[in-house]
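Course assignment 3, question 2. Fill in each field.
Student: A.L.
Task: Predict the tertiary structure for the chain below.
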Amino acid sequence: MPAFGLHPPGLLQTIFEDIGVALVVVDREERVVFANRSALQLFDATSAAEGARFRDLRGRFRFEDSSGNEIPLAESIVIRALNGEPITTQQVRFKKPNGETRWLMGGAYRFSSMGLEGVVVLVVDETAEVEARNAAAQLQRMETLGALAAGLTHDFNNVLNTITTNVALAKDDGGYSQQVGVRLGQISDAASNAAGLIKRLMQFSRGQPLHLRSLDVNHVVRDVLRLTQPLLRENISLSLDLGRDLPAVYGDSSQIEQVLVNLIVNALDAMPDGGDLTIATHVALRNQTDLIEKESIRRKQEQKVVQISIADTGIGIPVEIQSAIFEPFFTTKAEGRGTGLGLSSAFGIVRQHGGEIDVNSAPGSGTTFTVSLPAQAQYPAILH
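Answer field:
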């Protein structure tokens, strides 16, 4: 059994290895004297680290609170427990040197037995549960923002209609100076730009009508590449990996094209010094939960989807803002370079098609956006 110097008898050894959580024993001198297999795997350690100081092993990683603030060594549950402070369980975000991030729930408990004093540390990996809760909360937040956007677009459209109608009437009346004519033209142009923003808000709130038909995703991707070809600089290397025999999807080609164009433009913006742009399509199975209203139960089933991935080797997106990138008006671009509606409209369009859009990114490691659209045979019946 992997250990850092303390070898419990057979029964305890079996228990420590089979309890399903990471278990570490740290003595009064801050030496790690025992760790079970789960702990060794979690912290990328081996039994060769016998006698290592806790602070040295911990220094290889970054521990953060739920707000993203780093937790210093002195405030770690181990040091606090060794100093006699009563400890309650604490949830932390745990970052490895390779960029992997996990959510851990840990507790430290003082002990004194058989001439050994120190703390027993129990750590549970709650990454799956936390990510599921965060995804549900984000989806609920996006639904709320969508409802708000739907109401705003209706009101804004009424205001714009009044402005554009009166500008048109004023132009028809004539009799105004050239300077007034210029100003009327500026008002008309501003109203047109505002109408464009409102249209994108409507896409986010899923208020746009869709013109649905059977689509070959690979054809849509090739059409988008023809549109974006002039944007591909010489320092950008494009790779295509289009799957064969993909099932058709049921969608609005112009809307899906808009999503892909936006993602490609974002990918190019993320590679100002050049890099690799990879666009791929393939079939996948997505877990879906349906609510059966009559029986008031939820049923999980797998749904066949066609996925389109757009990957770049650019600057990446910090983990702490990834949950916000699809929200309206959120942008990391310099002022005047973006409205913050590109990804939010893409999110709305994909959701209106019964699909999902996901991001996988880390600073310095590039970004991959994946659009999943239901295969035509499994398209949500309510949207037919």
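Instructor remarks: The chain has three domains: 10-125, 130-204, 213-383. Residues 16 and 308 are 44 Å apart (CA to CA).
Grade: pending
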